[in-house]
Amino acid sequence: MIISIPYILLGLGGKCLLSCALVFHQRSHICKSFLGVFSVSLAVVDTILTLFVTTLHMHADGYVILLGLKLTRYHICLLVQILGQMCNALQWPVVVVAGLDHFLRVTRRFPVTGRIRFIVCLFVTGLLWYLAALYVFLLSNFIPVMEGVYHNQIHQCWIIHTTQILQVSMFLLLTLCCAALHARCSTRFLKNPPLKDQSTDQSRAHSRRDVVHQAIHIFLKTWVPFLFFLAMVLLLPVGIPAYLGLNIAWLCFLNSLLIAVVLCAVCPVSQITQGLAAVPPDSFCEWRFQCIVSVS
């Protein structure tokens, strides 16, 4: 897709303002999980890039000398294209690492202190950015697309669009649906179980169903408007520019969705019913479970 440079700056500026607002909203716990630390790093990268390309675009001479290098409007398109490629490359790794982080936190497999968790999250975040840059520059077939005109005459850039958002959201939503169907089917199959441990099996099945239903209800109660908005945007023929695809609003939605998937799919019901599960921090969904049949 072709986007004019003023619209690119407008999109980056809006993304930065939204990022700052969401980081401030989650300030009390944003550094307590991998997605929180990664969100802060993404806000820093977006802010630096936005300030730099805005200064470069608004400069009267059409270029800026930085560390002996002459940077022109060609570099605005180049930097935005590189950021888009890195955002595309980071989508699935962020989902995998965040899902693993949520799984370990909910099941309490490796309990760690807040300081150690922050250091690990910071290291993994830096490693992901480094690997994404390494992939874009050395391993991918990325070739910058530039207009064959003088730098003062550049007014628009070729921008790739993102498809990973649709893939990630569909995969996680299908996983959530499969967990709900499994909980419902397991309850039906236990209508006439063997007499031995009959009450225990029925109690476990009903508890599992209650956890799944309440988790899905909590998630949908908050994020249904965003799901409709996401569906509308993804169905538009223009698509989403890659440099806007990875943003903190999307990461907040991803955080809640991953929590729901982990609670429904892999968390033992006994840990939730006995209060042993540690739900990751979430500023948008209130993960409280009520009226769950206790497991004997």
Secondary-structure topology with pairs:
Blueprint (H helix, E strand, L loop, with lengths): L1 E3 H21 L8 H25 L4 E4 L2 E4 H35 L6 H26 L16 E3 L2 E2 L1 H26 L8 H38 L4 E2 H4 L2 H18 L3 H5 L23
Antiparallel strand pairs: 1-4, 2-3, 5-6
Helix pairs in contact: 1-2, 2-3, 2-4, 2-8, 3-4, 3-8, 5-6, 5-8, 6-8
What's the total number of strands? 6
Strand content: 5-15%
Identify low-pLDDT runs.
195-199, 292-296
Query: Helical stretch count?
Result: 9
From the spread of the alpha carbons, the general shape counts as: elongated
Radius of gyration: 23 Å
Q: What is the ordering of alpha helices and beta strands?
A: EHHEEHHEEHHEHHH
Strand order of the largest sheet: 1-4
Averaged pLDDT: 81
How does the helix and strand content classify structurally? mainly alpha
Report helical residue fraction. 55-70%
Major β-sheet profile: 2 strands, antiparallel
Ends apart, CA distance between termini: 59 Å
Tell me about this structure.
- With 296 residues, the protein is mainly α.
- The model is unreliable at 195-199 and 292-296 (pLDDT under 50).
- Strands 1-4 form a two-stranded antiparallel ribbon.
- The chain contains nine helices and six strands.
- The longest helix is centred in the C-terminal third of the chain and has 38 residues, at 198-235.
- Helices cover 67% and strands 6% of the residues.
